[in-house]
Structure formats: C-alpha cells, structure tokens
Amino acid sequence: PAPLTAAPRRAALGHGAAALNMGPDSATLGLPEEPRCPALALAQLPAAEARSQLQALVFGMAGCIESLERRLEVEMLARSCSPEKNAAQSQRLFLPDPSPRKSRASDSALPAKRKVPGESLINPGFK
C-alpha cells in the first residue's frame, strides 16, 4: 500500500471527526470518516514522561498560535495599506450614511445650546 500522508488525518481532525476509545491502560484514536487511516494506538506513559511531553506539546501549540497571530497581523496591516482598500474607503466618505437610525436621530435633534461662561452645569440658565 502507498504510504499515508498527514493530510487526510489533519483534514479529518479539522472537521472534528475523531473518535477516542479509552481502555484501562491505553487508548485508540480513530478517524471513522477516513477508512484509509488506521487507528492510532496511544499508550499510557509514566507521569513524569507524560508531563514533559504534554508541556512540550502545549508550548509548541502556543508558539504556533503566536506565529499565526503575527502572520495575521501582518496580513491585516498589508490589507489596510492596499490601494484598493484605500480607494474604497475614500469613495465611502462621499456616500450617504446607510444607517436609518443615525439619520433619524440627526434630523430630530435640537441644535446644540452653547454654554454661557459662569452658567450652572446642573441647572442650566442659572449662575
């Protein structure tokens, strides 16, 4: 048989299609939707070894997340600086506001009253 790559496993795990069967001393991780992928046998480790492997896994995942966040930040920055987006934003400045709530509020609002120096803030009209 041809060697299996990680891609089918990764795709099945990404869809949440994994099944974990627990036993007294071991467990198996299977992918029912992917029959070409055999189940992975997971053996129970001594606590110290399991702790160090779990720690390495968690820190590795944190590093991947940090890397992805940096890549996303760079991508978002590049998109915000792109000429297409800047042109779209400048065109949006000249379009009327599509929000009806905002339009109604501005139409019915009374003109702002100027504050007279020395006038009371609590009781306007009095000093």
End-to-end Cα distance:
93 Å
Percent helix:
40-55%
Radius of gyration: 31 Å
Low-confidence stretches: none
Order of helices and strands: HEEEHHH
Structural class by sheet pairing and helices: mainly alpha
| Overall morphology | elongated
Count of helix runs: 4
Mean pLDDT: 76
| Adjacency order of strands in the biggest sheet | 1-2-3
Summarize the structure.
This is PAXX protein. InterPro entries: PAXX. The protein is mostly helical and 127 residues long.
Verbal overview:
It holds the Pfam family PAXX. The model has no long low-confidence stretch (mean pLDDT 76). The protein has 127 residues and is mainly alpha-helical. The longest helix has 34 residues, at 47-80. It contains four helices and three strands. The chain has a domain at 46-85. Helix content is 50%, strand content 10%. A three-stranded antiparallel sheet has the order 1-2-3, with no helix packed on it.
For this entry, give a set of tags:
127 residues; 4 helices; 10% strand
Topology:
Elements: H1 6-14, E1 19-22, E2 26-30, E3 40-43, H2 47-80, H3 83-93, H4 100-108
Antiparallel strand pairs: 1-2, 2-3
